[in-house]
Prior knowledge:
By secondary structure, the chain is of the alpha/beta class. Helices cover about 25% and strands about 20% of the residues. α1 (about 15-20) packs parallel to α9 and α3 packs across α4 (about 100-110). The longest helix has 20 residues, at about 260-275.
Amino acid sequence: MNKKLEVLAPAGDQERLIAALDFGADAVYLAKTQFGMRAGPKNFDDEGLAAAVKMCHDKGVKVYLTCNTLPRNEEIPLYENFIRQAYEAGIDAAIIADIGIMMLTKRIVPDLPIHMSTQTGIVNYASANELYRMGARRIVLARELSLEEVKTIRRNTPEDLEIEVFVHGAMCVSFSGRCLLSSYLTARDANRGQCAQPCRWGYYLMEEKREGQYFPVFEDERGTFILNSKDMCMIDHIDKLADAGVTSLKIEGRAKSAYYVSVITNAYRMAVDLYNEDPQNFRLPESIRSEVFKVSHRDYCTGFFFGHPSECRQYYADSGYIRSFDVCAVVEKCEDGRIYCVQRNKFFEGDALEIIAPGKTYVSLTAEDIRDENGEPMGDTRFAARPFSLKNNTDKIFPRGSLIRKMV
């Protein structure tokens, strides 16, 4: 069962794609401007997709295209050209939720591997086996399964049917992302990639004869955000996921920042590599675990993997994010004892910083001798997106794409 685990990273646009590639993804999932479940990010047009696929394949990274909305009648005629162009661009698989779209895809591009989306709601081996017989190469299991249930599905399905699970990121309060709250309250259909996330809102009661008087809804003493899920984090349990027969570890976050994609992909890359070195004695060091807390996140939990989450899955106090670090700069090069960067956020001389490079845990440094692109002293990095350099007071050389961050 202990086959090589795939680290699958999100790519909502070109910047996030580069972040995933730089920080060690084995595969990325992304969308074109139609038929994807995240309409908010820029996504990729035809030309952009072809360029993205080439960039990934040049690095030995696979590209999975999300086609996992539930299309309406008027969209079906558009799909043939959509999927044919994606196939010609060289995608490695299509992620699909709708059975009709699955079979249509097989008729149009029969050689294209099909991954069945978590939106399909696969919770048992009977469904998995039928989808396999219909031509699915991989199944993305519903997020509501325990590891024991995943093991049972693995034991009762063909060995060449791959199993993918979400291991990190935002959780949806509804079953496998199938929700009508957004559609009802905002006319934005979550099943068509337009979710407004009303599950993150605070709610109150109003008595019909006391208009304008709002009364808090208390599920308990902690507050009124009764639908607000915690984020998932399984980085401590790579060995258990491998033992359950999982093929691919999927990181949620096509709408998240490039910094998020970089740090979380890097953390799971290091964790998986550490597991592969000695599967029998895997133990995650704090230096890797701490990385997942240095991006914007909600309180973490392990979802349903260890049984029903009961009280540990919802967070009632608020729906905000925990943010302890800001990315300050992206490294361009290191030479002559200096680090050359492009600014992302302001910092000052004397500030304590961290640099994170692909495949490495962070290195501490102090901001010293900040200079602009002409070598003139600056004192701080107040100018947006401006090139600058600072003294490299570490004994490390950091590759292009490394990130400098600061505690907020």
